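Narrative of accomplishments. A recurring question from our advisory board has been how the design workflow behaves on a single, concrete structure rather than in aggregate. To address it, we present the structure tokens for one chain from the evaluation set, followed by the sequence designed for it. No filtering or post-editing was applied between the two.
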């Protein structure tokens, strides 16, 4: 652990989701998500991903198919598979991973470049120029190759993909030195910032740290636009703008750089930018990136600096519902950025945001069955939109079928743009790495949901814990001490910012009430069998939006614990439409155990108002004086919507008296 990092995350050897909510998600990822995704990627009738590598290697004839970033998406699935090898090794998976490592390495050029569209074109005697178009995503692909190569080495000890990772870094270093303009122009969705720090940490070779610093210099010298966060040098940026995936990946990579260099000025910039997102641009579900398309800096008097942005952050408090983009990859990027800021600072607010994303928009990005995926994650879906929204997976870079009707946008097993599904797979396969950290101050537990944790320290102290909880459905979280060498170490338990009136006890004895939004510290000499209970009250909360968030005016959202709820038309009585439903101010909302498609959850119920039917086409019409009806409304967790066929849905609902 470097001097600049306060917390060191625990890996698979010391933290696992063994039971409970996240234990169930882990089992689903292992048994269903990773193998089903491999069946799709390896079947040329479904996906050209594997076949592209086989053609590039000369094992098959043909041309490249699919988007130019498909190599990187293939590497993300490989990273998920490698993570599964670490936690749940299986012979078929080990053989598959090793075969793919050999195949990928065989395709790489001697200069370290690896991009199957270019290599296949050259093999077919077609014109092929590296970095000819920034939207070929070569640096994105190479970054994910490096990360997969490092993980493969860490888990298996094999250097096959590590050598490929070093080759890719060598190619990037040559660009930074000799072709900085080409590198800067191509640095979109910059996974390579995080990747070369991964490589530095795995090899302790200073050249990779210097390369990360070069990436930042090259970017700051480039005259670009807000869509790629390169209109201004990073240290001059005060608000987050542009493509949300690119932004979150960039700032996550720069946080890695801060961790290794101790650059306090850059850390301050990142803290301010992160706060700009969380305070003014983050959806209540944790979604990032409000806009399908826009312009930035929007409304600026310096009109010569305005450029198009897409899949992007908008203005402060610009948070549309139906047209929310909230790409799954952007939301995962915010987890990557937040967990790095958490390691740098030890501030619980970063773990709070990871929790908000994880229990809401991350899990909404994958079906309850674990095999179908969303690209975008709107907060409202309605019928009969008079305009077409790009269908999930359409980046505009390749042809796709026409979009479906607006109320029939469903998760799909395979998207023509397949970046999000393997990103979900690798995030869930490695989610145990977000459970806890260790530092000189003790053991920090960040996320709850059924963990086994052990935290060895260099001084010989060790503390092992077994979590028993029904979180997020119940707020009682009990940790039993399973190991305690030399008395263990201080225990820090995160008290979420939403958790007012939390209580803490050890072996039945109450401790002082912990403060929301901090870590509650229990410093004592631990013994095996000690029990710590953190209780987080979970009333149903009704949330309003900021006065400047115009789309939220007169509406409320419902949250219980970390889980945000929504209304789905599947749960409406006959004759009631989504737009007729309103919540009554002060109405009692209660919870009960339920299920969606056989998956257990806690639903929220209460009396709702039924507004008069509005079936006219007028843009403005007189308000009807009809009395309001009532019915018992059922709200389900946002992550569970869209699993029962075509439907309408809304997180925010009108409020009436």
């Amino acid at each position: 652990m470097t001097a600049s990092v306060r917390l060191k995350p625990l890996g698979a050897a010391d933290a696992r989701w063994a039971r409970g909510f996240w234990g169930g998600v882990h089992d689903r990822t292992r048994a269903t998500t990773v193998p089903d995704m491999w069946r799709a990627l390896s079947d040329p009738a479904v996906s050209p991903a594997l076949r592209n590598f086989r053609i590039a290697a000369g094992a098959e004839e043909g041309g490249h198919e699919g988007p130019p970033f498909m190599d990187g998406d293939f590497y993300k699935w490989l990273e998920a598979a490698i993570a599964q090898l670490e936690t749940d090794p299986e012979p078929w998976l080990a053989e598959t991973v090793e075969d793919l490592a050999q195949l990928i390495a065989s395709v790489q050029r001697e200069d370290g470049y690896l991009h199957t569209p270019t290599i296949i074109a050259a093999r077919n005697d077609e014109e092929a120029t590296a970095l000819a178009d920034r939207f070929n995503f070569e640096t994105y692909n190479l970054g994910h190759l490096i990360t997969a190569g490092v993980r493969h080495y860490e888990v298996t000890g094999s250097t096959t993909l590590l050598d490929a990772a070093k080759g890719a870094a060598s190619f990037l270093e040559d660009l930074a030195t000799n072709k900085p303009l080409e590198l800067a122009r191509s640095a979109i969705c910059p996974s390579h910032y995080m990747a070369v720090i991964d490589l530095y940490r795995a090899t302790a070779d200073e050249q990779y740290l210097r390369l990360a610093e070069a990436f930042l210099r090259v970017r700051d010298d480039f005259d670009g636009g807000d869509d790629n966060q390169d209109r201004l040098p990073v240290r001059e940026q005060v608000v987050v703008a542009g493509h949300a995936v690119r932004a979150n990946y960039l700032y996550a990579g720069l946080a890695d750089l801060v961790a290794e260099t101790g650059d306090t000025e850059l850390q301050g910039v990142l803290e301010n930018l992160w706060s700009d997102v969380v305070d003014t641009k983050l959806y209540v579900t944790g979604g990032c990136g409000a806009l399908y398309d826009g312009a930035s800096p929007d409304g600026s008097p310096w009109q010569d600096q305005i450029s198009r942005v897409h899949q992007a952050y908008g203005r402060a408090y610009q948070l549309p519902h139906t047209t929310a983009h909230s790409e799954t990859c952007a939301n995962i990027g915010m987890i990557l950025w937040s967990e790095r800021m958490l390691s740098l600072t030890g501030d619980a607010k970063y773990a709070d945001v990871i929790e908000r994303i994880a229990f809401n928009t991350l899990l909404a990005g994958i079906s309850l069955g674990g095999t179908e995926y969303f690209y975008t994650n709107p907060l409202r879906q309605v019928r009969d939109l008079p305009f077409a929204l790009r269908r999930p997976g359409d980046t505009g870079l390749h042809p796709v079928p026409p979009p479906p009707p607006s109320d029939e946008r469903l998760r799909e097993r395979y998207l023509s743009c397949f970046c999000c599904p393997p990103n979900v797979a690798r995030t869930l396969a490695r989610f145990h790495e977000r459970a806890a950290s260790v530092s000189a101050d003790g053991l920090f537990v960040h996320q709850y949901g059924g963990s086994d944790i052990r935290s060895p320290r260099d001084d010989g102290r060790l503390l092992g814990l077994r979590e028993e909880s029904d979180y997020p459905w119940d707020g009682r979280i009990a940790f039993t001490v399973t190991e305690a060498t030399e008395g263990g170490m201080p225990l820090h338990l995160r008290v979420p910012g939403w958790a007012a009136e939390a209580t803490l006890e050890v072996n039945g004895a109450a401790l002082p009430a912990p403060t929301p939004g901090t870590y509650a510290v229990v410093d004592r000499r631990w013994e095996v069998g000690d029990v710590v209970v953190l209780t987080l009250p979970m009333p149903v909360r009704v949330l309003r939006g900021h006065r400047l968030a115009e789309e939220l005016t007169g509406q409320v959202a419902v949250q219980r614990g970390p889980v945000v709820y929504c209304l789905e038309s599947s749960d409406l009585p006959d004759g009631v439409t989504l737009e007729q439903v309103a919540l009554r101010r002060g109405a009692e909302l209660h919870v009960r155990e339920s299920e969606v498609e056989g998956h257990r959850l806690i639903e929220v119920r209460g009396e709702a108002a039924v507004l008069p039917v509005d079936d006219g086409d007028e843009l403005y019409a007189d308000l009807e004086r009809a009395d309001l009806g009532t019915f018992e409304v059922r709200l389900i967790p946002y992550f569970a919507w869209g699993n029962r066929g075509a439907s309408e849905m809304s997180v925010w609902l009108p409020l009436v008296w």
